[in-house]
């Protein structure tokens, strides 16, 4: 379908159509080729646009904050629907955010209004609608623990309905919404603590700087300030001037190793690093969680790998972020990811799984 035909198709949806938009302008990794973009500034426009494109059989890529996407250099052959509905409404003990709302602004709004609950998720780039898709989590708190409901557009039936968390199949950095495209998140609602107390502090580094014991709470505003400070020190708060933040955040998820695989993995670590090395491990529902960053660094990939001349490098602040130093292509990011993943697998027998959603390419 030509661009003129697409414009005609979307004329009555409320979307603003732009042609030949470089998707690198819309993602935090700042890579991705050209595409036709339909900007949807309201929920009504978003629903109408997706319905029209689906009815016409046009390929759709939904994009909001662009913080968890790695898009091919060739761009996208279809229509990129930009999720721009951004309303935020506070209730007596909850917050309702439309899908396109900036996530950190949602958190800031709740904390400023005297609510607790979301403060450990401060500084995470992206949109509110993306948070349940990958069960966003940080500093001991996950979206699944706070989510009340999600408003979804069913692309097969065209129906819009509220969905309870039990229907979303949450797991570590995943849900039934990730890696499928038959539903569109329109809004999310989270439970909040009206007393202003934070969520129980489970992350040791954060609890320590706040002088708290594990499971204790602190004022949400104090916790938010420390989380932002810690994230900034790791290059995990967006800053145009800092190439360490030109990333998709943590590129690999922390691997969960089953009980029968763990002895083999620990033996491989001991072989390469010595019997006395202390391996950071954490209990997980399906086994034992290891630190991806720790494995990457011990496999020989230091901060800033491979060197200062590389267009794509590991962050100079921590090894879990793959960064664009200003001129990287998607192919550069993919090559670096493959090198790191292969090195960890060869040395320790652990396959790292990428966290970002890939479009038009595979790792």
Task: Write structural notes for this entry.
- By secondary structure, the protein is α+β, with helices and mostly antiparallel strands.
- It is about 25% helix and about 20% strand.
- The chain is built from eight helices and 18 strands.
- The chain has helices at about 5-10, 45-55, 105-110, 205-210, 220-235, 260-275, 290-300, 330-350; strands at about 15-20, 35-40, 60-65, 70, 80-85, 90, 95-100, 135-140, 140, 145-155, 160-165, 185-190, 255, 280-285, 285-290, 310-315, 320-325, 355-360.
- The strands form six sheets. A five-stranded antiparallel beta sheet has the order 6-7-12-10-11.
- The protein starts with a helix and ends with a strand.
The secondary-structure class comes to alpha+beta
Q: How many distinct helices?
A: 8
Question: Whole-Å distance between the termini?
Answer: 30 Å
Widest β-sheet, arrangement of strands: 6-7-12-10-11
Task: Supply Rg.
Answer: 21 Å
Query: Unreliable runs, pLDDT <50, ≥5 residues?
Result: none
How many β-strand stretches?
Answer: 18
Listing every helix as H and every strand as E from the N terminus to the C terminus, the arrangement reads HEEHEEEEEHEEEEEHHEHEEHEEHE
What percent strand? 15-25%
Shape: globular
The average pLDDT score comes to 96
The main sheet comes to: 5 strands, antiparallel
- Helix content range: 10-25%
Could you give a short description of this structure?
Helix content is 25%, strand content 21%. The chain contains eight helices and 18 strands.
